[in-house]
Amino acid sequence: MWEYTDKVLDHFRNPRNVGTIPNPDGVGEVGSMACGDALKLTFKLDKQGRIADVKFQTFGCASAIASSSALTEMIKGLTLEQAGKVTNQDIANYLGGLPEQKMHCSVMGREALEVAIANYHTGKTSKKILEGKVVCHCFGVTEDEIVRVVRENRLTTVQQVTNYCKAGGGCGKCQPEIEVIIARIRAEQPSAPPAPKPAPHLTTLQKIRLIEETVEKEIRPALKKDDGDIELIDVVDNRVIVALRGMCANCQVAQFTLKDVVEAKLREFVAPDLVVEEVPS
Fold this sequence. Notes:
This protein is an alpha+beta fold. The protein has three domains: 6-122, Sufe protein. Chain: A (Alpha-Beta Complex); 134-188, Arc Repressor Mutant, subunit A, CATH 1.10.10; 204-278, GMP Synthetase, Chain A, domain 3.
C-alpha cells in the first residue's frame, strides 16, 4: 500500500476545481484511459491576463486526482508565464511529497498545463502531440520527454524514469535506450568536486613541533607589533596551554587575542580541534 501524506489524501477525497469551464481560453488533454491515466485541464483568464478559473477532469489513481487538484489551486491568480514555470516537483512538494512510483501523476499535470497554455497561444489542438523520436511505444513517450524528466529530477535509473513518465514500464524493449539517455545526461553534468582529504594524523611530537613553528612564524610577529609576546607552556591532547607576555599579559582584550589570533592560527595551520588555554596567573 502506498504511503500518502495527509495533504494528498485531502485533495483526493475532497478534490478542488473538478469539472470543465464553458468557452475556456485554454484546454489541455494528456494521457489516455487505455494507459491508465488521463487528464483534461481548462482555464479562463481575467482582463489582466491572470488565471481566474481553472478546472480539471481526470481518470486515474489517488495521486493523479490529488496532483490535478493541487495544480489547479497552485496556478489560480498566476499569469500564464508564471504558471508555465510550475514543475512537477513543485506539485509534489505542494502535496508534501508523492510516492516515487506515482511521480508520473505530477508530470502529467505539468504536461496538461503546458498543452493548455500552448492551445491558448496558438489556437491549435488541445491534445498532446508527440514531437521528436518516440522511445517508449507502449506509452508514447519521446526522447525529449525522457531527457526532461531525467534532468529536472536528477534521475539515475531506468526504474526512476518509469516512475516519472512510465517509459520502460510496458514491454521493456526500450529500457536499454533509456539507459543510454541517462548515461549521456550524467556525462554532460559537471562532476562533483572531490571531497577534501582528511587531515593527516599527527603524532604528539609532530603536533608540538608544528604548534611551535606556527607560534614562531604566524603568531609571535603579530603580537610583537603591539609589544606583546607569547610563551608555549604545554600541549595536552588537543589543549594548547600558553602564557601571554609583555603588553598582552595585562591587556583588556587578552581573551580576544587568545581566540581570534592564537587559537584561530593554530586551528588553521595545525588542527581544527585545538583549544587554546591561558595558564593561570
